[in-house]
Amino acid sequence: MNDKIRILIVDDEQKVLNVIEAYLLKEGFEVLTSVDGEDALNIFNNEPLHLIILDLMLPKISGEEVCNKIRATSSVPIIMLTAKAEEDNKIDGLTIGADDYITKPFSNRELVSRVKAIIRRTYRDNNPLAELLIINNGDLEINIGKMLIKKQGKTISLTSNEFKILVALLTNPGQIFSREQLVNKAFGIEYDGFDRTVDTHIKNIRQKIEDYPKNPKYIISIYGMGYKFQG
Questions:
Q1: What does the record give as the DNA-binding region (predicted)?
Q2: Under CATH, what is the fold of the domain 132-229?
Q3: What is the DSSP string of 147-209?
Q4: Measured distance CA(96)–CA(78) in Å, rounded
């Protein structure tokens, strides 16, 4: 991660996309864009994001489905963007996991104000931009940008896949991931490996970061559900 808030805009209207992007860039945000739901999910699964502006009327995969898939593994803030103005649609959007809802046509200044408000509300108690994560008073140090991990001050080596799984877990502390969800979050929906390989990766990670791998304190197994990170 760099030192900027990273926002994904998803809208199939290129003119709308360009205008929103210009306003957010002017405010100092880093912006990624997508014109369809399938591409948006691929970006979500492969890039660190702090907020998503999501149109509902999208090709390939609808905005509602995109929102549902994101909410299955992440609490990243989502602002719904749509031409639908009816009250029921607003309620539906919030029900499936949106944090805010704005209808077209809209004021770009209002949208930027809402973005800033959600960013402040979501990240006021912690720094979302921290590249270095320090856990349990330095027992673990994880530098996401450099893919560097230290255990009690000593550098340890993880494979790329192990690192991706660990980052997926520790950036969503306390959230339970099924094997399939963890595969999608760590490797993307196009990954064609077997979700059962997650167990092997988890075992290897525990051997490297846990004091007692058979009695882990960081990566916890939840019977019948999957794994979560705590610490």
A1: 132-231
A2: Arc Repressor Mutant, subunit A (1.10.10)
A3: TEEEETTEEE---HHHHHHHHHHHTSTT--B-HHHHHHHHH-TT--S-TTHHHHHHHHHHHHH
A4: 11
Rounded CA-CA distance 149/154 in Å is 8
CB 24 within 8 A of CB 51: no
| Report for 113-117, 125-129, 132-136: range of highest mean pLDDT | 113-117
> Model-level pTM?
0.55
Helix-strand-coil percent breakdown of the chain, rounded to 5? 40, 20, 40
What residues does each domain of the chain span?
Answer: 6-123, 132-229
What are phi and psi for residue 71, nearest 5 degrees? -70, -20
Non-local CB neighbours of 106 within 8 Å, separated by 6+ positions: 81
